[in-house]
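4.2 Preliminary Data

To establish feasibility before requesting continued support, the project team ran the inverse folding procedure on a target of 260 residues. The structure was first converted into the token representation described in Section 3, and no sequence information of any kind was made available to the design step. The complete token record follows.
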């Protein structure tokens, strides 16, 4: 059973394999770091039955659940409160974090689930009941929640190449909150203008800021966004930084003159 410490990202791997779903997990802790490719047989069997048998199990419960692997190779969870196997299966599953959220992979997509086993579905802004059917459409990459007052996970839905061709014609990303809802962004330069999605979003830094892009190639627009939901154009951000630095230099010069 694949058990990874401190998972940083989980994403779909481009593959021409018609029999398996493939994923890449990036992990990092004080002892080791790297990436692991996970391969799972394609199937429509993602809902548990009374005939499921546990083959391997984690050594302890984490935040109320224990990750297990079934005899058919799928992953699932045992609930600590009643020691019962939950009726949901995944190609890959991780421990629940302190927010009650866990990264999972199923059906050629990755997503977050909560302890009620609701899932995040691409194109929707809230989490919904996991019906474990073949129509599930998740995400292509998710990141761990950022550090800071407002922890956020970046979730990407993008063009994916299968069998040598791109089968999806759109790409977008959003910021996912620990509440299970997408963060709504507000344009600080244009009051009243808001959005949930950008074409791509970089991970948030320690200042709870990051860069986001809209469009593709030479025509894409660049923005600076904050974890509180405000965003401005990169040009305006640079202008504000320049003004701040200029004012700081003037203040330092005035202080130096007074000291002299």
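Position-by-position output of the design step:
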């Amino acid at each position: 059973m694949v058990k990874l410490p401190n998972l940083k990202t989980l994403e779909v791997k481009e593959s021409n394999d018609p029999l398996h779903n493939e994923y890449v997990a990036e992990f990092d802790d004080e002892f080791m770091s790297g990436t692991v490719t996970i391969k799972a047989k394609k199937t429509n069997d993602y809902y548990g039955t009374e005939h499921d048998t546990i083959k391997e199990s984690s050594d302890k419960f984490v935040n109320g659940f224990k990750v297990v692997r079934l005899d058919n190779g799928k992953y699932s969870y045992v609930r600590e409160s009643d020691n019962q196997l939950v009726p949901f299966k995944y190609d890959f599953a991780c421990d629940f974090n302190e927010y009650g959220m866990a990264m999972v992979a199923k059906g050629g997509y990755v997503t977050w689930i909560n302890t009620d086993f609701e899932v995040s579905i691409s194109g929707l802004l809230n989490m919904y009941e996991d019906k474990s059917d073949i129509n599930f459409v998740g995400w292509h990459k998710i990141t761990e929640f950022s550090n800071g007052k407002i922890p956020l996970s970046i979730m990407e839905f993008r063009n994916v190449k299968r069998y040598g061709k791109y089968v999806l014609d759109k790409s977008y990303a959003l910021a996912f909150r620990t509440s299970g809802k997408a963060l709504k962004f507000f344009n600080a330069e244009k009051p009243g203008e808001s959005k949930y999605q950008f074409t791509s979003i970089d991970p948030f830094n320690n200042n709870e800021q990051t860069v986001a892009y809209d469009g593709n190639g030479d025509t894409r627009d660049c923005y600076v966004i904050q974890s509180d939901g405000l965003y401005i154009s990169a040009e305006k951000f640079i202008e504000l930084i320049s003004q701040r630095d200029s004012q700081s230099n003037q203040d330092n010069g005035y202080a130096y003159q007074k000291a002299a």
